[in-house]
Design the sequence.
């Protein structure tokens, strides 16, 4: 039974290393895909917030129309939907329009982040498992080796086993870092949408007061 278990440990150790290698490839592909996707949207959100800030500083709420005319993006589409809704229904239901739009956009922004977070949180434990299995195999091999070769078997086995821990950390550290980085980017984009929502409501109220005066 013990021999079968140690044979399994030897196989499992190799499986762990292959799993970590596969996880590193998946993690890298997710990082690159999310980086280029969010980078463009993040730049657009910064420009939108700057336009909103200038509009508020000059009391020019019509900046919403200018943002809606910008190249097609998540934020410009939000402005376009808002201006159309204001033209048709005014302030009524405008907040719900933004809430619905945010709900539909959030999954696109957060796509694959849960996988990246899972890889980052579990990779160290997978690496530790590989190290434990490797050390178990090392001591088993030491018991089967001669006294002269025992020390060499232990040193070689432990050094190889620690590679699994190093591999696990190498996968986990960048995964966790970029998970937090992307989460911050997503939050900044959602903050820009929230700012657009508040500005749109103010814009709708201003138009409503103008219409009342004309009447």
Sequence:
């Amino acid at each position: 039974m013990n021999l079968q278990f140690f044979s399994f440990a030897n196989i499992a150790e190799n499986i762990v290393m292959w799993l970590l290698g596969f996880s590193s490839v998946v993690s890298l592909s997710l990082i690159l895909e999310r980086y280029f996707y969010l980078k463009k949207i993040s730049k657009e959100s910064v420009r939108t917030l700057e336009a909103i800030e200038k509009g508020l500083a000059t009391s020019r709420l019509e900046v919403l129309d200018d943002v809606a005319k910008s190249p097609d993006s998540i934020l410009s589409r939000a402005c376009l939907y808002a201006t159309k809704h204001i033209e048709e229904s005014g302030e009524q239901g405008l907040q719900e329009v933004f809430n619905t739009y945010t709900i539909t956009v959030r999954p696109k922004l957060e796509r694959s982040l849960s996988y990246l977070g899972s890889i980052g949180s579990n990779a160290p434990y997978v690496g530790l498992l590989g190290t434990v299995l490797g050390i178990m195999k090392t001591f088993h091999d030491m018991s089967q080796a001669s006294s002269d070769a025992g020390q060499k078997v232990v040193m070689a086995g432990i050094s190889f086993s620690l590679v699994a821990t190093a591999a696990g950390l190498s996968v986990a550290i960048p995964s966790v870092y970029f998970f937090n980085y992307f989460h911050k980017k997503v939050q900044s984009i959602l903050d820009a949408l929230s700012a657009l929502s508040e500005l749109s409501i103010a814009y709708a109220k201003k138009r409503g007061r103008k219409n009342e005066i004309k009447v």
